Amino acid sequence: MKVRSMTSVLAMAVAVSLASADDFSTSVGAKAKALLFTFQGLSFLGAGNFDGGIGAKFYLSNPVALRGSLQFANYNHTVAANPMAPATGTDGSDWAIRYGVSAALEYHLLPGRVSPYLGGGVSVSSTSTESKPSEVGTPPPAAPTTKNGGLPGFAPGMELAGGGLVGVEFFLSKEISLSAEYMLGYSLLSPYDREFINGAVTTTTKVGSTSNIDVSTAALTLAVYF
Fold it and tell me: Which residues pair with 73 in a beta bridge?
């Protein structure tokens, strides 16, 4: 379904680009440069949470651009204890952090206000997580800690990914554009050891590596040309 939707978007983009190529001037051209600001999802823009990055793009020639970026994601969530009197409680927590770098090459198919492109990219990232359950009691017991047990959207470990890109860049003005893209890629995750810490006792579990091939939604990117 995602691939079919993207194909429809690209078809519309080509039509709009052909219609607007003659009446809209952009900053794109050989040696054009842009600062990039990426966001993986608006749900991560809440207090204490972020998922995005910053980078740069440089046009090697009129249709070909090279880009690179630094990525960062942070997630904090409190697990409420909700004790009932006379018991008391200690809130739990979920925490995750991910950072990485990426690089990609774009080949723009058509000039104009709407510019569809193809390309390829690679990335490497590191992710760590930590979780503590909420506890209720009189008094509440000390909560155990699980390090690198994983959270939704965060797989602990070192990940190497790469694949093909298909996307669209839309110019809001001559110097500012928004881009969205899909990636068909392969990823290899080398997980970190999982640790369960209960008081003075730490239990370590080794986890095997995993690989995956899928179609994923990449970032929404704001580009500022200069």
Answer: 51, 98
